[in-house]
């Protein structure tokens, strides 16, 4: 069974200038253990689609099934907290907190039951942050390192779906490859469903499946 299934999903923004049809009848299905790349020009609806999949916005029509259950029938906040991890172009780490505290805070917010300090350490190690760095403030890290900490934070509560909106958008090639390598490992070694939005063709090429978004329409293939 697909982990996420979208059927005829639509979303509009109401603006002063009128209605913007950001997502039009999107239908797609996403499996565990697979990396998906969504490509398409700016304004084509990619981020809107992602926020629908994250349960941050409610579709105007159509439905989203998570493990066969309609999101409309479950608690969206809980869905987001327990099953979805998000990563953004501009990391959004809390600058006054250390690397470890950023991850521990996310665990607290998602009501993680185990030992948060231990879990945060494991996640930071997994993304290649050395133990000696755990207690450094997040602003003291390079961009590539900050994105790795953001990934540690996103996966800490063990979500099954990882949504990444332009995760390599601010990074050079080497750091970009490193981030894609980690996302790859999350899917192929840990069985996560990884869905990433990207402008970079070299990032899209490394994904298992490419989807294309054009003027609100989603289709398979680059
Ligand atoms: N908060 C918003 N209010 C009004 N229109 C929006 C808002 N966010 C996005 N849009 C519009 O919706 C369309 C899709 O935007 P978006 O999903 O951000 O595309 P992408 O991520 O592919 O650049 C665009 O026309 C954009 O201007
Ligand atoms: Mg966007």
Q: How many structural domains in the coordinates?
A: 1
Task: State the share of residues found in helices, binned by percent.
Answer: 25-40%
CATH topology: Rossmann fold
Q: Roughly what is the average pLDDT, rounded to an integer? A: 96
Distance between the termini: 24 Å
Order of helices and strands: EEEHEEHEHHHEHEHEE
Strand order of the largest sheet: 6-7-8-3-9-10
Please give the radius of gyration in angstroms. 17 Å
**Mind telling me the CATH superfamily name?**
P-loop containing nucleotide triphosphate hydrolases
- Output the number of helix runs: 7
Kindly name the structural category: alpha/beta
CATH class: Alpha Beta
Catalogue the ligands: adenosine-5'-diphosphate, magnesium ion
Q: Find the count of extended strands (DSSP E, 2+ residues).
A: 10
Low-pLDDT ranges: none
Residue share in β-strands: 25-35%
Q: Describe the biggest sheet?
A: 6 strands, mixed
CATH architecture annotation: 3-Layer(aba) Sandwich
Could you give a quick summary of the protein structure above?
With 222 residues, the chain is α/β, with parallel strands linked by helices.
Walk me through what this model shows.
The chain has a single domain (32-56, 76-220), classed as P-loop containing nucleotide triphosphate hydrolases (Rossmann fold, 3-Layer(aba) Sandwich). It has seven helices and ten strands. It has helices spanning 46-53, 76-83, 99-109, 116-126, 143-155, 173-188, 201-206, and strands at 4-15, 18-30, 35-39, 61-66, 69-70, 84-88, 161-165, 193-197, 209-214, 217-220. The strands form two sheets. The protein has a six-stranded mixed beta sheet, sandwiched between helices. Helix 3 (99-109) crosses helix 4 (116-126) and helix 4 packs across helix 5. The relative contact order is 0.21. The model has no long low-confidence stretch (mean pLDDT 96). Magnesium ion binds at residues 46-47.
């Amino acid at each position: 069974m697909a982990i996420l299934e979208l059927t005829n999903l639509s979303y509009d923004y109401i603006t002063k200038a009128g209605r913007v049809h950001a997502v039009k009848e999107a239908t797609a299905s996403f499996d565990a253990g697979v990396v998906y790349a969504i490509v398409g020009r700016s304004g084509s609806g990619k981020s809107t689609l992602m926020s629908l999949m994250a349960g941050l916005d409610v579709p105007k029509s159509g439905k989203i099934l998570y493990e066969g259950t309609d999101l409309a029938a479950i608690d969206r906040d809980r869905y987001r907290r327990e099953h979805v991890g998000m990563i953004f172009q501009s990391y959004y780490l809390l600058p006054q907190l250390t690397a470890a505290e950023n991850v521990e805070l996310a665990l607290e917010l998602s009501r993680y039951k185990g030992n948060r300090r231990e879990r945060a350490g494991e996640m930071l190690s997994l993304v290649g942050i050395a133990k000696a760095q755990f207690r450094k403030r997040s602003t003291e890290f390079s961009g590539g390192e900050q994105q790795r900490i953001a990934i540690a934070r996103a996966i800490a509560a063990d979500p099954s779906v990882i949504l990444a909106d332009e995760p390599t958008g601010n990074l050079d090639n080497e750091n970009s490859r490193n981030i894609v390598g980690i996302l790859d490992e999350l899917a192929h070694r840990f069985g996560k469903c990884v869905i990433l939005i990207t402008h970079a063709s070299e990032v899209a090429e490394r994904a298992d499946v490419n989807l294309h978004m054009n003027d609100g329409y989603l289709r398979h293939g680059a």
